[in-house]
Each structure stands twice: as structure tokens, then as C-alpha cells.
Amino acid sequence: MLPALAMQMTGEVNWTAGDFVFATILLGSVGTVVELAARFARPGAPHIGYIIAGFTAFFTFWLNAAVGIIGEEDSVNIFFFLMVAGAILSAMIVRFRPGAMRWIAMLLAIGQYAVGIAALRMMPGHSVEWGFLTVFVLLWLTAAWCFNRAVINRAS
């Protein structure tokens, strides 16, 4: 509702119907992840891991669509979308098992820096905000740690 209200007050906010649909899908998706984690994940580490992964995926899509994580929206940012979309598909294939989810989250963490390195090559003269990428890396690694704790606890 905030963008709709802001559009009434200033000309600087100019959302299209597609923007509102995109926001609805993203917010609905993160809400679904949190709800499913609350219902089906074992309490503790896996529960927290799914919630962190869901919010990190949400923020990746949201920030990337809004302004682009690295440079313009039409630059190497497509790789962030593709990584998260591939991770979601992979997670569905492995039925969201914590043992596989830890590796998916680890690969996403590595992928954040890989896209940063690719940006240096593909966009010469453009700076990469490594601190910002590191926040995403730490979030993915935290989710991976939570999934790993679930695997360790299940084995013992």
C-alpha cells in the first residue's frame, strides 16, 4: 500500500500494474515459505534455516528488481535471479531436505561472490559493492549452517 500512497503524493514513485503484481507474488512467496516452515519444519535449526533462506531469496529478488544489486537492472543482475530461481527449483526436486538444502545455500553464498567477480570482467570500470554482497553471503551461510545443524542433530 505504501507505493500506492506515495504515488498520490509525489511523481517520483511511478509503479505500474506489473510492479504491483510482482510485489504481490514476492510477498506471497515469502509468506508461504514462512508458513510452511512453521507448519512442517522441525523446531529449531531447520525452521530458522528455511525462514532465513526465504527472506534472503525475497530480498535478492526485491532489491535486484528495484535498483539492481550490481549496476543497472539489465547488467549481470540477471545471474542473481537465475541463481535463486535455480536454487528454488533444486530445493523442490530434493523435497527441501535439510541435507541438500545446506549445499544449495552454500552454493548460493559462493554464487554471490562469483557474480561480483563476473561483474568486474563484464563491466570494466564499474565498482562492485563487496560489503553488500557479503551481507547476502552471510545470510546464505547462516541458512546453510542451520540446515547443517539439522543434519547433525538428526544423525545423533
Automatic annotation (TrEMBL):
Membrane-traversing stretches: 20-38, 50-70, 76-96, 103-124, 130-152
Keyword check for Transmembrane: yes
Domain of life: Bacteria
Swiss-Prot/TrEMBL keywords: Membrane, Transmembrane, Transmembrane helix
The keyword Transmembrane is assigned to this record: yes
Name of the protein in question: DUF2157 domain-containing protein
